[in-house]
Specification:
Helix content: over 70%
CATH superfamily: MetI-like
Order of helices and strands: HHHHHHHHHHH
CATH architecture: Orthogonal Bundle
Largest sheet: none
Structural class: mainly alpha
Number of helices: 11
Strand content: under 5%
Radius of gyration: 25 Å
CATH class: Mainly Alpha
Protein backbone atom coordinates (compact mmCIF):
# COMPACT_ATOMS: atom_id res chain seq x y z
CA UNK A 1 0.00 0.00 0.00
CA UNK A 2 1.40 3.31 -1.03
CA UNK A 3 0.69 6.36 0.99
CA UNK A 4 0.68 9.66 -0.77
CA UNK A 5 1.24 12.71 1.33
CA UNK A 6 0.49 16.13 0.06
CA UNK A 7 1.98 19.26 1.42
CA UNK A 8 0.34 22.61 1.17
CA UNK A 9 2.76 25.20 0.00
CA UNK A 10 2.48 28.33 2.01
CA UNK A 11 2.98 31.63 0.27
CA UNK A 12 6.32 33.19 1.04
CA UNK A 13 6.18 35.42 4.06
CA UNK A 14 6.92 39.00 3.22
CA UNK A 15 9.12 40.86 5.67
CA UNK A 16 7.34 42.98 8.20
CA UNK A 17 6.72 46.44 6.75
CA UNK A 18 7.62 48.21 9.96
CA UNK A 19 10.81 46.18 10.30
CA UNK A 20 11.86 47.14 6.77
CA UNK A 21 11.07 50.80 7.40
CA UNK A 22 12.94 50.70 10.70
CA UNK A 23 16.02 49.16 9.15
CA UNK A 24 15.94 51.68 6.29
CA UNK A 25 15.66 54.62 8.68
CA UNK A 26 18.40 53.19 10.91
CA UNK A 27 20.68 52.76 7.91
CA UNK A 28 19.89 56.23 6.55
CA UNK A 29 20.64 57.87 9.90
CA UNK A 30 23.33 55.55 11.22
CA UNK A 31 25.78 55.84 8.33
CA UNK A 32 25.93 59.69 8.31
CA UNK A 33 26.19 59.75 12.10
CA UNK A 34 29.04 57.22 11.99
CA UNK A 35 30.87 59.27 9.36
CA UNK A 36 30.43 62.43 11.45
CA UNK A 37 31.79 60.68 14.53
CA UNK A 38 34.83 59.44 12.58
CA UNK A 39 35.34 62.94 11.13
CA UNK A 40 35.05 64.53 14.58
CA UNK A 41 37.52 62.11 16.18
CA UNK A 42 39.96 62.54 13.31
CA UNK A 43 39.66 66.33 13.53
CA UNK A 44 40.50 66.15 17.25
CA UNK A 45 43.47 63.84 16.79
CA UNK A 46 44.94 65.51 13.70
CA UNK A 47 43.46 68.99 13.22
CA UNK A 48 43.50 70.16 9.60
CA UNK A 49 42.98 73.72 8.43
CA UNK A 50 40.92 72.76 5.40
CA UNK A 51 38.86 70.06 7.16
CA UNK A 52 37.44 71.57 10.37
CA UNK A 53 35.53 69.42 12.80
CA UNK A 54 31.78 68.90 12.39
CA UNK A 55 31.15 70.96 15.52
CA UNK A 56 33.05 73.91 14.06
CA UNK A 57 31.09 73.60 10.80
CA UNK A 58 27.80 73.41 12.74
CA UNK A 59 28.67 76.61 14.61
CA UNK A 60 29.58 78.32 11.33
CA UNK A 61 26.33 77.06 9.79
CA UNK A 62 24.24 78.68 12.53
CA UNK A 63 26.23 81.91 12.50
CA UNK A 64 26.24 82.19 8.69
CA UNK A 65 22.86 81.00 7.49
CA UNK A 66 20.48 81.44 10.43
CA UNK A 67 20.05 85.15 10.06
CA UNK A 68 19.99 87.86 7.39
CA UNK A 69 21.93 85.70 4.89
CA UNK A 70 18.99 83.31 4.74
CA UNK A 71 16.75 86.11 3.44
CA UNK A 72 19.27 87.89 1.22
CA UNK A 73 21.03 84.85 -0.29
CA UNK A 74 19.29 81.53 0.36
CA UNK A 75 15.66 82.44 -0.35
CA UNK A 76 16.40 84.19 -3.69
CA UNK A 77 18.49 81.19 -4.78
CA UNK A 78 15.69 78.79 -3.86
CA UNK A 79 13.15 80.96 -5.70
CA UNK A 80 15.26 80.93 -8.86
CA UNK A 81 15.82 77.20 -8.51
CA UNK A 82 12.10 76.48 -8.09
CA UNK A 83 11.13 78.68 -11.04
CA UNK A 84 13.76 77.06 -13.26
CA UNK A 85 12.73 73.53 -12.30
CA UNK A 86 9.07 74.25 -13.08
CA UNK A 87 9.97 75.80 -16.43
CA UNK A 88 12.36 72.96 -17.35
CA UNK A 89 9.80 70.28 -16.49
CA UNK A 90 6.89 72.00 -18.27
CA UNK A 91 8.91 72.83 -21.39
CA UNK A 92 10.56 69.42 -21.42
CA UNK A 93 7.32 67.47 -21.14
CA UNK A 94 5.44 69.66 -23.65
CA UNK A 95 8.22 69.73 -26.25
CA UNK A 96 9.13 66.09 -25.69
CA UNK A 97 5.54 64.97 -26.17
CA UNK A 98 5.20 66.96 -29.38
CA UNK A 99 8.50 65.68 -30.77
CA UNK A 100 7.77 62.11 -29.70
CA UNK A 101 4.36 62.09 -31.38
CA UNK A 102 5.50 63.75 -34.62
CA UNK A 103 7.87 61.54 -36.55
CA UNK A 104 9.03 64.10 -39.13
CA UNK A 105 9.65 66.68 -36.40
CA UNK A 106 11.65 64.15 -34.40
CA UNK A 107 13.82 63.27 -37.40
CA UNK A 108 14.31 66.96 -38.16
CA UNK A 109 15.26 68.04 -34.62
CA UNK A 110 17.19 65.00 -33.39
CA UNK A 111 20.63 66.16 -34.65
CA UNK A 112 20.00 69.66 -33.29
CA UNK A 113 18.94 68.34 -29.88
CA UNK A 114 21.99 66.11 -29.67
CA UNK A 115 24.21 69.08 -30.56
CA UNK A 116 22.81 71.41 -27.90
CA UNK A 117 22.72 68.66 -25.29
CA UNK A 118 26.45 68.08 -25.81
CA UNK A 119 27.32 71.72 -25.09
CA UNK A 120 28.35 72.22 -21.43
CA UNK A 121 25.87 74.82 -20.13
CA UNK A 122 28.46 76.80 -18.09
CA UNK A 123 30.30 77.85 -21.27
CA UNK A 124 27.14 79.65 -22.43
CA UNK A 125 26.92 81.85 -19.34
CA UNK A 126 28.91 84.70 -21.00
CA UNK A 127 26.53 84.51 -23.97
CA UNK A 128 23.46 84.79 -21.73
CA UNK A 129 25.11 87.65 -19.81
CA UNK A 130 25.79 89.51 -23.06
CA UNK A 131 22.18 89.02 -24.18
CA UNK A 132 20.31 89.52 -20.91
CA UNK A 133 22.74 91.19 -18.53
CA UNK A 134 23.39 90.13 -14.95
CA UNK A 135 19.78 89.61 -13.91
CA UNK A 136 17.69 86.99 -12.18
CA UNK A 137 16.14 86.13 -15.54
CA UNK A 138 19.61 85.28 -16.88
CA UNK A 139 20.29 82.94 -13.97
CA UNK A 140 16.94 81.21 -14.37
CA UNK A 141 17.52 80.72 -18.11
CA UNK A 142 20.98 79.26 -17.44
CA UNK A 143 19.46 76.75 -15.01
CA UNK A 144 16.64 75.91 -17.42
CA UNK A 145 19.01 75.38 -20.35
CA UNK A 146 21.26 73.10 -18.32
CA UNK A 147 18.54 71.01 -16.68
CA UNK A 148 16.03 70.78 -19.55
CA UNK A 149 17.61 67.91 -21.47
CA UNK A 150 17.02 64.91 -19.17
CA UNK A 151 13.25 65.42 -18.96
CA UNK A 152 12.99 66.42 -22.65
CA UNK A 153 14.84 63.40 -24.03
CA UNK A 154 13.22 60.96 -21.58
CA UNK A 155 9.81 62.27 -22.58
CA UNK A 156 10.60 61.78 -26.26
CA UNK A 157 11.70 58.19 -25.65
CA UNK A 158 8.76 57.47 -23.36
CA UNK A 159 6.22 58.75 -25.88
CA UNK A 160 7.90 56.84 -28.72
CA UNK A 161 7.80 53.57 -26.76
CA UNK A 162 4.03 53.62 -26.21
CA UNK A 163 2.68 50.14 -26.91
CA UNK A 164 1.38 49.97 -30.49
CA UNK A 165 -1.32 47.43 -29.59
CA UNK A 166 -2.73 49.76 -26.94
CA UNK A 167 -2.56 52.64 -29.40
CA UNK A 168 -4.56 50.70 -31.98
CA UNK A 169 -7.02 49.61 -29.30
CA UNK A 170 -7.56 53.24 -28.29
CA UNK A 171 -8.21 54.17 -31.90
CA UNK A 172 -10.65 51.30 -32.31
CA UNK A 173 -12.61 52.69 -29.37
CA UNK A 174 -12.76 56.02 -31.25
CA UNK A 175 -10.86 57.96 -28.60
CA UNK A 176 -10.00 61.50 -29.64
CA UNK A 177 -6.31 62.50 -29.90
CA UNK A 178 -6.64 64.47 -26.67
CA UNK A 179 -8.14 61.48 -24.86
CA UNK A 180 -5.40 59.20 -26.20
CA UNK A 181 -2.77 61.68 -25.06
CA UNK A 182 -3.99 61.95 -21.46
CA UNK A 183 -5.32 58.43 -20.97
CA UNK A 184 -2.65 56.42 -22.80
CA UNK A 185 0.45 58.24 -24.06
CA UNK A 186 1.37 60.32 -21.02
CA UNK A 187 0.58 57.57 -18.45
CA UNK A 188 2.64 55.08 -20.47
CA UNK A 189 5.53 57.53 -20.71
CA UNK A 190 5.29 58.72 -17.09
CA UNK A 191 7.95 56.32 -15.66
CA UNK A 192 10.52 57.63 -18.13
CA UNK A 193 9.36 61.20 -17.58
CA UNK A 194 9.79 60.91 -13.82
CA UNK A 195 13.24 59.40 -14.32
CA UNK A 196 14.12 62.48 -16.35
CA UNK A 197 12.69 64.80 -13.70
CA UNK A 198 14.87 63.12 -11.06
CA UNK A 199 17.97 63.89 -13.13
CA UNK A 200 16.73 67.41 -13.82
CA UNK A 201 16.56 68.20 -10.10
CA UNK A 202 20.22 67.38 -9.48
CA UNK A 203 21.40 69.18 -12.62
CA UNK A 204 19.30 72.24 -11.73
CA UNK A 205 20.92 72.46 -8.29
CA UNK A 206 24.38 72.31 -9.86
CA UNK A 207 23.49 74.96 -12.45
CA UNK A 208 22.06 77.21 -9.73
CA UNK A 209 25.41 77.22 -7.94
CA UNK A 210 27.41 77.75 -11.15
CA UNK A 211 25.16 80.59 -12.36
CA UNK A 212 25.68 82.42 -9.05
CA UNK A 213 29.44 81.90 -8.86
CA UNK A 214 29.99 84.08 -11.94
CA UNK A 215 28.75 87.62 -12.60
CA UNK A 216 26.88 87.75 -9.29
CA UNK A 217 27.11 89.52 -5.97
CA UNK A 218 24.59 87.48 -4.01
CA UNK A 219 23.16 84.02 -3.76
CA UNK A 220 24.19 80.74 -2.22
CA UNK A 221 26.73 79.92 -4.92
CA UNK A 222 28.30 83.37 -4.67
CA UNK A 223 28.66 83.08 -0.90
CA UNK A 224 30.35 79.66 -1.10
CA UNK A 225 32.82 81.01 -3.67
CA UNK A 226 33.38 84.14 -1.54
CA UNK A 227 34.17 82.05 1.53
CA UNK A 228 36.57 79.90 -0.49
CA UNK A 229 38.44 82.90 -1.94
CA UNK A 230 38.83 84.46 1.51
CA UNK A 231 39.86 81.22 3.24
CA UNK A 232 36.79 81.14 5.46
CA UNK A 233 36.93 77.36 5.46
CA UNK A 234 34.29 76.57 8.10
CA UNK A 235 31.82 78.93 6.43
CA UNK A 236 32.59 77.39 3.04
CA UNK A 237 31.86 73.90 4.39
CA UNK A 238 28.65 75.18 5.98
CA UNK A 239 27.51 76.35 2.54
CA UNK A 240 28.34 72.94 1.08
CA UNK A 241 26.32 71.30 3.86
CA UNK A 242 23.39 73.61 3.12
CA UNK A 243 23.52 72.66 -0.57
CA UNK A 244 23.50 69.00 0.43
CA UNK A 245 20.46 69.55 2.65
CA UNK A 246 18.67 71.29 -0.22
CA UNK A 247 19.46 68.30 -2.44
CA UNK A 248 18.07 65.92 0.18
CA UNK A 249 14.91 68.03 0.47
CA UNK A 250 14.44 67.95 -3.30
CA UNK A 251 14.88 64.18 -3.29
CA UNK A 252 12.29 63.74 -0.52
CA UNK A 253 9.74 65.97 -2.27
CA UNK A 254 10.35 64.17 -5.55
CA UNK A 255 9.88 60.75 -3.91
CA UNK A 256 6.53 61.82 -2.44
CA UNK A 257 5.32 63.22 -5.77
CA UNK A 258 6.59 60.21 -7.71
CA UNK A 259 4.80 57.80 -5.39
CA UNK A 260 1.53 59.60 -6.05
CA UNK A 261 2.00 60.04 -9.80
CA UNK A 262 3.28 56.51 -10.39
CA UNK A 263 1.11 54.77 -7.82
CA UNK A 264 -0.21 52.37 -10.48
CA UNK A 265 3.31 51.63 -11.72
CA UNK A 266 4.70 50.81 -8.27
CA UNK A 267 1.60 48.66 -7.61
CA UNK A 268 2.37 46.59 -10.71
CA UNK A 269 5.99 46.20 -9.61
CA UNK A 270 4.90 45.05 -6.15
CA UNK A 271 2.62 42.42 -7.69
CA UNK A 272 5.41 41.22 -9.98
CA UNK A 273 7.86 40.93 -7.06
CA UNK A 274 5.26 39.04 -5.00
Amino acid sequence: MTLYTSTVRRPPQRPNLWARMGSSILYAIGVPVLLLVIWGVWGTIAPAKFFPSPLTIAEAFVDTWIGPAFVTDVLPSLARLAAAIVLAVVIGIAAGTLIGLTRWLRELLEPLLEFFRAIPPPVLIPVFVALLGVTDQMKVIVIVFGSLWPVLLNTVEGVRSTDSVMTETARSFALTPTERLFSLVLPAASPRIMAGVRQTLSVALIMMVISEMFYSSSGLGFQVAYFQRNYLIAQMWSGIVLLGLIGVLLAVVFTIVERRVLRWYHGIKEVERA
